[in-house]
Amino acid sequence: MLLLALDTATPAVTVALHDGRDVIASSSQVDARRHGELLLPAIDRVLAEAGLKLDAVTGIVVGTGPGPYTGLRVGLMTADTFGLALGVPVHGVCTLDGLAYAADLADPFVVATDARRKEVYWARYADSRTRLTDPAVDRPADIAAQVEGLPAVGAGALLYPGTFPRAHEPEHVSAAALARLAAERLAAGEELPAPRPLYLRRPDAQVPKNYKVVTPK
C-alpha cells in the first residue's frame, strides 16, 4: 500500500504519503489564497523525500471538507485527476474527521474550522474516531448551548473563545492524520466512500440579480 493523502479544505495545503505502516513523508503550508499554486509542488516534494515516483501510489485519500468552494475543489480535482491517470481508487475522508483524529482525545469534544462570514464548520465527536453529528455551518453564538463545556480543536474554535473557551490545537488539518485515519479504516476492512465535496453553502461568487445575457445578433 502507498497512499497519497491531500487536503485543501482549510488554509493549510497539506500532503502526505503512507506506506501501510505509517507516514513516510509529509508537507504542510498555510496560505488560504495559494492552494492551486502550492499543491502540486508539495506532492512533488513528498514524493522526492520518500524517494518514490507518482506511479508507485496505490490509492489517493482526499479531504472532502467542509470548506470554501475555491480551496476545496483544488484538492478534489487533483485527487480525481491523479486517480484517473494512475487507475487507482480515490477515497474521501471528512476534513473534520482528520482534525478529530489528530486531536487524539478519548472523551467528547468539538471540531470547528473557520467558515468565514463569522461562521464555523463544526461537528461533535464522542472520541477521536467517532463523529456524533453531521458537519454543519453555523454562527458560534447559535451553537453555544450545544457545545458548552466541551473541549474544542480547530481554527474556528480558536477564533471564538467566548463559545469555545476550552479550544486548543491542532488548528488545521494535516494530510498525515488523514492518511493514518484512512489506512486504519482500510486495514479494518472498511470501504471508504468516493469523494463528495461538503460545501454546505453556495459559493461566494453569485450572478448579479439584474444580470442580462447579451448575445450577438
TrEMBL record:
Residues 32-153 form the Gcp-like domain. Signal peptide: none annotated. InterPro entries: ATPase_NBD, Gcp-like_dom, T6A_TsaB. Pfam families: TsaD (PF00814). This is Peptidase M22. GO terms for biological process: tRNA threonylcarbamoyladenosine modification. SUPFAM superfamilies: Actin-like ATPase domain. It comes from Streptomyces viridosporus (strain ATCC 14672 / DSM 40746 / JCM 4963 / KCTC 9882 / NRRL B-12104 / FH 1290). One of its GO terms (cellular component) is cytosol.
